[in-house]
Amino acid sequence: MKNPLFVGSSVAIVTPFDKGMVDYEAFSKLIEIQKLNGTSAITVCGTTGEASTMTDTERFDVIKFTKDICKNIPVIAGSGSNSTIKALENSIIAAEAGADALLVVTPYYNKATDTGLIRHYTYIADRVNKPVILYNVPSRTGVTIKPETYAALSQHDNIIGAKEASVNLSDFIKSRNLCPEDFYFWSGNDDLTVPMMSLGAKGVISVAANIIPNIMSDMASYCLEGNFSFASTLAIRYRELIDALFVEVNPIPVKAALSLMNLCKNELRLPLTSMDKNKEIKLYEIMKNSGLL
To answer: What letter would DSSP give residue 128?
Structure first.
């Protein structure tokens, strides 16, 4: 029986920068906030963490720093690439830095076939000593993991589940039906946390948890308890705020939000740029109405 590693809410945490360098002082504060607000796991070096612009050394240092602080909380490290060899190298770096699991996005741009996806993930999972979590996000990669592909990959002893961000609930239901009970799914979309958990997902890997960690933790906890009425109330109450975090490509809005909360600088690495001023004003209003400012 495979271990799900975590249930509940994992933050897809930002990487704060200051003058082009990782701001470890701010990063430490962000992690401590998560620890104090019920977050079940920390996901670093993902899309929200701008990992694609980080060097191998930065990745290693950020993962190690996170694990040193989070000794009793699982740390999941993004390690995917469009190159299988590079994804394996990233995964080895993450494992050596102390990651408890590896989040491996589908190989973007190349557009691998179903057979290619199976071989890609099998190649990596065969060669690492940490559990692998697949990451299906077609809006980013142009590639979709089909239910039948999930079913094939679920048989691998070292592949424990998937962050599912395709927004296709019909395919998710089919995937749940085809995969064994010990192949776990987590929502990759904050706004679909409740419906996906009602269909068997174990939690969410969340962008919104950067600014409302307690709310995302409570939402997931209510779902795990079977109290979908309370969870739905939270989902509806914070829907406008969650939507506001995606009016521009992630992590542009969430970094603006954290800056408004004086938790880190609003600094991104190119090709990402700061949020449109009119949209930032709207975000500010929504955050103020939500009691965050």
So the answer is: -
pLDDT tens readout for residues 39-57: 999 999 999 999 999 999 9
Catalytic center residues: 135, 163
Reading the block at residue 214, the tokens are 């307690």
Q: Per the confidence metrics, is the pTM higher than 0.90?
A: yes
Q: What is the DSSP letter of 262?
A: T
Q: What are the tens digits of pLDDT across the range 69-81?
A: 998 999 999 999 9
CATH architecture observed for domain 8-225: Alpha-Beta Barrel (3.20)
Q: Locate the domains of the chain by residue range.
A: 8-225
